[in-house]
Amino acid sequence: MQIIGTSLNRVDAKEKVTGQAKYTGDLVSPHALVAKVLHSTIANGMVKSFDLEEAWKVPGVIDIVTCFDVPDIDFPTAGHPWSTEKKHQDIADRKLLNTRVRFYGDDVAAVIAENEIAASQAIRKIKVTYDEYMPILSVESAMKPGAMAIHEERPDNVVVHSNYEVGNFEEAIEEPDLIKIEGDYQTPIVSHCHIENAFSFAYMEAGKIVVVSSTQIPHIVRRICSQALGIGYGDIRIIKPYIGGGFGNKQDALTEPLNAFLTTRVGGRPVKLEYTREETFACTRTRHAMQFHIVSYVRKDGTFAARSIDAYSNQGAYASHAHALVANAVNGFRMMYPVGAIKGNAYTVYTNMPTAGAMRAYGIPQIAFALEAHVDDIVNKAGFDPLEFRKKNMMQLGWVDPITTITCHSTGLSECIEKGDAYLNYTKKRKKYAKQSGPIRKGVGMGIFCYKTGVYPISLETSACRMLLNQDGSAQLQMGATEIGQGADTVFSMMAAETLGFTMDKIHILSKQDTDVTPYDTGAYASRQTYVSGMAVKKTAESLKKKILEFAGTMLDKDAWDLEIQDNQVVHKNQDKPLISVAQVAEEACYSLTHSNHIAAEETHHCSDNTYSFGTCFVEIEVDIPMCQIKVLDIVNVHDSGRIINKQTAEGQVHGGMSMGLGYGLTEFLKFDPKTGRMLNDNLLDYKLMTALDTPELHAEFVETVDPTGPYGNKSLGEPPIIPVAPALRNALLNATGVAIDSIPLNPEKLFFAFEKAGLFN
Amino acid sequence: MQIIGTSLNRVDAKEKVTGQAKYTGDLVSPHALVAKVLHSTIANGMVKSFDLEEAWKVPGVIDIVTCFDVPDIDFPTAGHPWSTEKKHQDIADRKLLNTRVRFYGDDVAAVIAENEIAASQAIRKIKVTYDEYMPILSVESAMKPGAMAIHEERPDNVVVHSNYEVGNFEEAIEEPDLIKIEGDYQTPIVSHCHIENAFSFAYMEAGKIVVVSSTQIPHIVRRICSQALGIGYGDIRIIKPYIGGGFGNKQDALTEPLNAFLTTRVGGRPVKLEYTREETFACTRTRHAMQFHIVSYVRKDGTFAARSIDAYSNQGAYASHAHALVANAVNGFRMMYPVGAIKGNAYTVYTNMPTAGAMRAYGIPQIAFALEAHVDDIVNKAGFDPLEFRKKNMMQLGWVDPITTITCHSTGLSECIEKGDAYLNYTKKRKKYAKQSGPIRKGVGMGIFCYKTGVYPISLETSACRMLLNQDGSAQLQMGATEIGQGADTVFSMMAAETLGFTMDKIHILSKQDTDVTPYDTGAYASRQTYVSGMAVKKTAESLKKKILEFAGTMLDKDAWDLEIQDNQVVHKNQDKPLISVAQVAEEACYSLTHSNHIAAEETHHCSDNTYSFGTCFVEIEVDIPMCQIKVLDIVNVHDSGRIINKQTAEGQVHGGMSMGLGYGLTEFLKFDPKTGRMLNDNLLDYKLMTALDTPELHAEFVETVDPTGPYGNKSLGEPPIIPVAPALRNALLNATGVAIDSIPLNPEKLFFAFEKAGLFN
After folding, report:
1. Are B710 and B611 in contact (CB under 8 A)?
2. Which tens digits make up the pLDDT trace of A253-276?
3. Which among A376, A495, B327, B564 is least surrounded, fewest beta carbons within 10 Å?
């Protein structure tokens, strides 16, 4: 490998730091109309009527659309590939604007006006009459017999209930001398907090609706818009410029379907629909709050005999990604320690909360918190070594998941654990910190995880790529896969250069996706792109190279199979001497008077495999007991993500995930008024996101395996770094104080009550 | 044929009439800086120095660039495909800004400012010191021995001199009893007068220079910009939105290379460079003025024994398309009447006039005026029937040009002549009008032409096309070939629908070209696109259809070769019963869980053929002798352009060409100050373009042949309609008055002197 594995600056670095990079907001026509959405001020009810008289009087108002004016079409919003099988399709449970209001902030009307002020004024002047019902905010109240149905189609408010059993659980727990350990764990609703709010603008051109949007999934958004409006896919065009983060929130259709509809109301004039920070918090998607009840039966030799989990996921008002997340969580429960009998049971439940959707690591941070907390409870109670216990029970090379058939093609998890232990001197410190007293105490903690790469076989994994040879011997690289800040464009460019035998400066990646011309790809999620789309890059580069060498062969009167490309030069295989440059081949191919040929390649990769990546977090903290404060002294994530394509961007991913994991573990949660269901901290002042000042020095380490199924030996890396941080923190707190807190965030309020209960203030 | 041959509205009709269609000006960023060019106020000389002091003081000026600041690179501007053979390459004879000034209006400096006013003010405040030389405006003065060299590399000012001889001319003219007829003919410099002026804007993105431009030839402009700036093709990106006409002026790099350079001076900020109407007239390109001396030796049986031509073409200041036009003219002289010995001799000469470039029909309106005037002189002097004489001598089916090898694959010219004669009752009227007196007289005239289709074998003919199957069974059609108002998008869509078996609503053509993603095509010129690019559409549609049917075959468990598509349905060949819809195939191809495949096709057509189209104009006029006015009473063009793809748009082309031909024959010419070389009528008030009020009812008729080399039996149509109009008018005037005027336009001034000389006022 010449380029894969080196440490390169991002291909978009210069553009982004100089402000040249164009985001949705930079592309809005100066003549665009402005749309604003009226969100419901009740969490559960029915719109009876609107009084629009005062709103219409606001100068500059062009149109007012209410939930009584939109197409009577229920559509799904989840950023999943579509399925032609009805039972695998996402749940279609909302309209462009909703008469049946299901959360505080539901979309009930929209105004299009000449400018922002007029639109906002008109929104404020719309009067709505509701039939109001009691908000149902928790899973418990939603599942209570006789609870009101939030969606008619689900009278019990259960979106989906699923369960599995591996081995015979009831038999397994009959084994004598088992230690039974039980626990309840809870994770909070949190917000993605991407820098760029939900934002799109839409217009009509050539009879088509064009939506420019800050999305992770342009091709999927096209499908959803066409379904929501009841028109052909070919009549919708989605353009995705650079985006200011998504973290899964933009793996959903957010403003796009309504915006697509609004432009049709004004004859195709451009309509801008930019959510405020408050709307982005309250009216887009959240991370699912989950509750887990885990029971483990452990043998005295430190192996699991049996384990069971009951999981409850608070879906909020609309299905969005629905059960996929808690299903992923309970599957992850099985996969991490695939020994003994295992039983999983999961519910996804509608409530009158904001809709939960995809968020980085898709259910796994939730389960990892619960499971790794639970494992530390086991080792503490039974006196096992936490690292040895994990190593003994965790997934091993060659393991095949009996349910999904996903195989462990490679694992470096043991080395990850050893590297983390060595980095932090964990084993020694853990013992040392076990018996402290006084107000300031230290602790170390850790947690591990496994994570799949993409969504096969649950769902379709497909990706296409196109390359064009420019006349100067450089290549255009056109991906359906999306750059969402994670560095995808950089690694795709490296992959293309590697396979083509080009230098990096000869690869021109097109960052902007345009569904009219961009090859199909489902988009950025599930840490799938380097694995699935990376293979599409590899196949397309191979196809392009073959065509280049065939043309070169005719120029050189040599067999193409005997030629290779090295550093932009055509050479004999296994010889370095340049025969002709790719630039010369390209020029001749374009301008030959006898057989011009515009060399391009376009290939689909249909992916029928999956693989696990692994990792661990080791953290050392200082706990100020009187102040109920945790200070992170040192933290390291060690990842096995197969071969690392680009060290620099890989570290960036890990740092970002660790920062997010620290927030998840320590500070972040969304707070709601228990009476109305209104979100109370819907902004970056009141929502306690980690800032640069809050964040300690972050350390990222890698154990490089070479996965045989990855295009370049690589496997998932994008999402995983968030996963092990919260349980490591919780376990460090346990080590420091002996207090096991089984819900996050571990904020001062929670620590206060836990410490008080544990008598630490005495 | 289901769709080819029907009469459909343009696919862009609605967008264009509603104002939704986006042109370059609609896409300029509101934050764009504004550039203005300082044009020389002398026609021949050398810039000695600039005084920029006052210009820099204008508030809002960002940068001033002079001819001393630009790269020392000579580049060509002609919109020809490049040639890897040096001798076939266009002449590189200008820089981005020129120190050696060669015409009144040459580019010597540019200002970039925050707004239009500041840029214009600063331009006015730049003081230039020149070394001034005598302007050389005519071919005669440029070729005079001892004349100053306008370009050092051409000391005799002859850009190119070429000649040919077919048969043995000297021997042929020795045949006894030949009638020798001789004439001198002149055509004027005229302007394209496209509605949208020369206009581009440029910025940098992702390290690339992006130029959005009103051009006919985006891929060629990319190559020229890269040559002008000395950077790789891959580092330049050209975007071509809808354009407001070009007529050949935009088959040249105009503002783009300088604009590409200017944005690099301001860190990639967007820079708009919009020429005014006056600049577009004086500083872009013109149609070559040509002078011809023709000698014919005719047998008494009405056949040519020998013909010779000497042609002189006034190139103006820079080579641009250079000799290609007069070479085309003298080749056309041979091709139209390919009997007897023929001798051609042609000069292209630099002068200090504005640069002449491509314009509709590329030298053929010039030669057709001369030749068809000359033929009417022959028939009048020798007493032949004008139609019979032409039919006897004109190109016949199967004829192969001995020089270019272009073959007459189809001809309907005889029927065209008969149809025109019948329409106007020409033969009868011609006799009737031959002997009139009085101040108001009528006359009929006609002329014929032949016209090639594309540029093979003189130059490269290549075109690529890409199609993508959308998930709803519609297809994206992506062309490198350009819509420039001529209706290309409509006929390409029809071709795609025809070959795919789709209905028209299932074809989504992408009108905007973007060299980063658009398949290669040389662009809109030489009436090549329906013939060359049309074949690329056909090949690509066949390839896409094959892939669709292969996928359908696996779904239906049938052999693909036995399937066909009709009306968006997959059917058994020769059976109408739908088996499955293309929409179902497309959806399954996209979402199959076992073998998803993003169906796309991309094909190059390397064209190695050419074919002739033919036509004629018949016109009846009324001449007011005292007023020296010509009024067109009736006019018809009859064309053999092979199979007509779309009657409606074909008629549109013919009407547009006829209107342009009327202006060329009657009113248009550019006037220059003989001392300074300054253009005097550089605007639409003083330049006498035909307006709607000046234009009579225009009649278009077709004789449909099926050309065996055209993708759908079609051949050139875009340019030809202008060709036969001017000679028909001249011959009608001759019929009406007996006065043969051998230069155009036939405006009152010219008629006055000719009538006076002929004694018509006596």
Report:
1. yes
2. 999 999 999 999 999 999 999 999
3. B564
Does the pTM surpass 0.90? The reply is: yes
Beta carbons of A234 and B508 less than 8 Å apart:
yes
- Rounded Cα distance between A48 and A42, Å, is 13
Q: How far is B585 from B365, CA to CA, in rounded Å?
A: 51
Exposed e or buried b per residue across B545-554, where buried means at least 16 C-beta atoms within 10 angstroms of its C-beta: bebbbbbbbe
Phi, psi of A269 (to 5 degrees): -65, 150
Nearest to B478 among A234, A517, A520 (CB): A517
Q: CB distance from A12 to chain B under 8 Å?
A: yes
User: Which residues are paired to A475 by β-bridges?
Assistant: A469, A507
Structure tokens that stand for B390 in this block: 């032409």
User: How far is the C-alpha of A363 from the C-alpha of A217, rounded, in Å?
Assistant: 19
Residue A751 has a pLDDT of 98
Judged against a pLDDT cut of 90, whether residue A298 lies above it is answered with yes
Dihedral Cα B646, B652, B655, B660, nearest 10 deg: -120
- With an 8 Å Cβ cutoff, are A510 and B519 in contact? no
Tokens standing for residue A281: 């918090």
Mutation target to probe the B interface, by most B beta carbons within 10 A, among A598, A604, A608 is: A598
Mean pLDDT computed over every residue of chain B: 97
Nearest neighbour of B471 by CB, restricted to A204, A205, A223: A223
Give yes or no for a cis peptide into B724 (omega within 30° of 0). Answer: no
Element (H, E) at A199: strand A199-205
Nearest chain B residue to A595 by CA: give it.
B606
d(CA B216, CA B700): 26
Mean pLDDT computed over B87-114? 97
Whether A190 and A324 have beta carbons less than 8 Å apart is answered as no
Closest CA to B472 of B508, B512, B496, B497: B508
Whether A314 contacts chain B with CB within 8 A:
no
Between the alpha carbon of residue A369 and those of residues A183, A331, A342, A414, the distances in Å are 12, 14, 18, 20
Residue A51: its H or E element:
strand A45-51
Query: Residues of A with CB below 8 A from B206's CB?
Result: 11-12, 15, 508-509, 511
CA A537, CA A494: separation in Å to the nearest integer? 10
Asked if the interface predicted TM-score (ipTM) of this complex is over 0.90, the answer is: yes
pLDDT higher than threshold 90 for residue A762: no
d(CA B129, CA B109): 13
Buried-exposed string A401-434: b where 16+ CB fall within 10 A, e elsewhere: beeeebbbbbbbbbbbbbbbbeebebbebbeebe
A460 CB near a chain B CB, below 8 Å? yes
Nearest C-alpha of chain A: how many angstroms from B418? 39
Q: Is residue A576 helix, strand or coil?
A: coil
Query: Residue A188 has what pLDDT?
Result: 98
CB A348 within 8 A of CB A326: yes
The set of residues, in sequence order, having a beta carbon less than 8 Å from that of B73 and lying 6+ positions away, is B95, B96, B227, B228, B229, B230
Q: Mean pLDDT over residues A93-119, rounded?
A: 98
Q: Answer whether residue A435 shows pLDDT above 90.
A: no
Candidates A724, A7, A604; CA nearest to B468 is A604
User: Phi and psi (nearest 5°) for B579?
Assistant: -95, -40
Greater confidence (A29 vs B133) lies with B133
Phi, psi for residue A660 in degrees, rounded to 5:
-65, -40
Task: Take residue B665 and report the two structure tokens written for it.
Answer: 């024959």
For residue A533, the 8-state DSSP code is I
| Nearest beta carbon to residue A588 from set B84, B457, B462 | B84
**Minimum Cα–Cα distance from B16: chain A residue:** A206
DSSP string, A690-737: --TTTPPP-EEEE-----TTSTTSB---SSGGGTTHHHHHHHHHHHHH
* Beta carbons of A120 and A39 less than 8 angstroms apart: no
Residue among A585, A621, A465 nearest A529 (CA) = A465
